[in-house]
Amino acid sequence: MIAINNLGMQFGKRVLFQDVNMKFTPGNCYGIIGANGAGKSTLMRILSGELSPTHGDVIQGPGERMSVLEQDHFKFDECTVMETVLRGHSVLWDIMQEKDALYAKADFSDADGIRASELEEKFAELEGWNAESDAAALLSGLGIREDKHYTLMKDMSGNEKVRVLLAKALFGNPDNLLLDEPTNDLDLETVAWLEDYLSKFENTVLVVSHDRHFLDSVCTHTLDIDYNKMQIFAGNYSFWYQSSQLALRQQQQQNKKAEEKRKELLEFIQRFSANVAKSKQTTSRKKMLEKLNVEEIQPSSRRYPGIIFTPQREPGNKILEVKGLSASIDGEILFNDVNFQIEKGDKVAFLSHDPRAMTALFEIICGNRQPDSGTYEWGQTITTAYLPLDNSQFFNTDMNLVDWLCQFSDDSSEIYLKGFLGKMLFSGEEVLKKASVLSGGEKMRCMIARMMLRDANTMVLDSPTNHLDLESIQAFNNTLQSFKGNILMSSHDHEFIQTVCTRIIELTPNGIIDKMMDYDDYITDERVQAAREKLYAKA
After folding, report:
1. Rg (CA), the chain
2. CB neighbours of 220 closer than 8 A, spacing ≥ 6?
């Protein structure tokens, strides 16, 4: 349990939130959402004790232990992987250290013996004898091979460090668990493991994430930080989004009677509850909407970017043909002898254990890289818009945003260009910002505006949700679902792939898997799994 009383946080004249009172209780997982800069990470730092609030208190239940996902990836460089995870339970770790120091003494006294027996009793109570095997199980679940469990952290890759630190946070069944962007740098399979783990977790969890599928899978409640206020809603992110959009539409329908609106909301809750009941969540979490009061549903004040793609011409029958395509990096094969044909209306998700494979393929078919072998050919009617993984080359300039966007437009009028920037939530003086000082999310919105100008009938998207906030991801997702052209994309966002794509092509060093099915079916299909194991097996 975590309770916050009269909490306020202010930086200079800027008030993030004030006079907040709420309680987070065991058995619930609270997904924290809010626009960039609303104070999500600040709240997590206050709850963890890393940051002192301007006023107010944070209280845990008596004797409870809090665990936090570490953000410093170099903090444990001199520790082994196993030691790093064990340090996640600080009480147990301290007992282990003191116990080992006592037994190592050359002049072991009677007092030392008494103290050692006390420590052994506490050690047994905390199930210390199972600590290493429990830690190993977490590490294996998160994709850290057994032969690396006693490797020094400084010798692990950045991606592996993220997984170890996550295992450290989960270790020892903490009473209160704080996770800030836990799915960053995790592949889809590891995210699925974490979803399953947290959906069964019985204590208190607070999580910040831009991954909607993850939030939907693990959260019982949504904590919305909006305009200096915090409010807890029953239900996961999808429930919050859909219900707030419904309430907003109702607000705009002034003629509709209050009773009609209430009935509409009740029907929505019933439909949503029926869908929740079909999910993989535990029984307790399926009951998250039972006590919901209709009056709690409120319209959101969130601003969503206006992402609209309007193909100038309809694509013909020939879209893209790939023959014998191969690519490697420093002698390491990314994919080999790849053959496929994109059909009209295909929305394809490309997968691989190595994300460099998708980037290499997209760079090749967009003319930015030469393949090791093979050919590709676009249809004559096809116009493409490419969203690259690395957009840094586009922003090495001191041009303002209007001038920057003008480079990619046939219409150079300021009003026309400001219209596109306005759709991407750049208003007033913001359009005169220098392109070089933009944040990652702002750069992505500019790149999307650039794509909109192209009026393309085929989208090539390499990790399109990177750096975007939930509002932008949701708007992008909705647009791609209704897009009439072709889409070729890679993504770490489960919901994005599941709701947009109807075909999966997986690139491996030994061939491809090409299936006309949605992502959920693909990852659960036994024949697909067998094929994947075979293709990824080392020769």
Report:
1. 26
2. 27, 28, 29, 30, 234, 235, 236, 284, 285, 288
Q: What is d(CA 141, CA 126) in angstroms, rounded to the nearest whole number?
A: 22
Q: How many CA atoms lie within 13 A of 175 on its CB side?
A: 13
Distance CA 240, CA 63 (A): 33
- Within 10 Å of residue 275's Cβ, how many Cβ atoms? 10
Cα–Cα–Cα angle for 148, 154, 159, rounded to 5 degrees: 70
Which two tokens mark 171? Answer: 């270790």
Sheet holding 29-33, edge to edge: 66-68, 176-180, 204-208, 29-33, 221-226, 229-234
The dihedral through the CA atoms of 425, 429, 432, 436 has a sign that is: negative
Nearest to 84 by CA among 124, 122, 140, 139: 139
Judged by DSSP in three states, 37 sits in coil
Dihedral over Cα of 70, 137, 216, 358: its sign? positive
Task: Provide the 3-class DSSP secondary structure of residue 437.
Answer: helix
Angle ∠(86,90,95) on CA atoms, nearest 5: 90
Distance CA 458, CA 465 (A): 18
Q: What's the rounded Cα separation, in Å, for the pair 48 and 17?
A: 17
Statement: residue 131 has pLDDT above 60: yes
What average pLDDT is seen over the chain? 91
Domains and CATH numbers, the chain: 1-64+175-302 (3.40.50.300), 320-394+455-536 (3.40.50.300)
Dmax (CA) for the chain in angstroms is 89
Q: What is the pLDDT of residue 288?
A: 59
Q: Which amino acid is at 81?
A: V
The neighbouring-strand residues paired with 490 are: 462
pLDDT of residue 261: 76
Q: Position 533: which residue type?
A: E
pLDDT value at residue 274: 65
Per-residue tokens: 323: 């023959």
**Rounded Cα gap, residues 25 and 3, in angstroms:** 8
200 and 282 Cβ atoms separated by less than 8 Å = yes
Distance CA 103, CA 117 (A): 11
pTM, two decimals, is 0.85
**Cβ neighbours of 87 (radius 10 Å):** 19
Give per-residue pLDDT as tens, 108-125. 888 888 999 999 999 999
Single-letter code of the amino acid located at 52: S
Contacts of 434 (CB under 8 A, 6+ apart): 397, 398, 399, 400
> Which residues, including other chains, have CB under 8 Å from residue 108's CB and lie 6 or more apart?
102
Share of the chain above pLDDT 70, in %: 95
pLDDT number for residue 166: 97
Instruction: Tell me how far the alpha carbon of residue 56 is from its chain's centroid.
Output: 31
The secondary structure element, H or E, covering residue 180 is strand 176-180
pLDDT tens digits, one per residue of 396-419: 999 999 999 999 999 999 999 999
Q: How many CA atoms lie within 13 A of 394 on its CB side?
A: 23
d(CA 96, CA 92): 6
Question: Bridge-partner residues for 504, per DSSP?
Answer: 349, 515
- 357 within 8 A of 327, measured Cβ to Cβ: yes
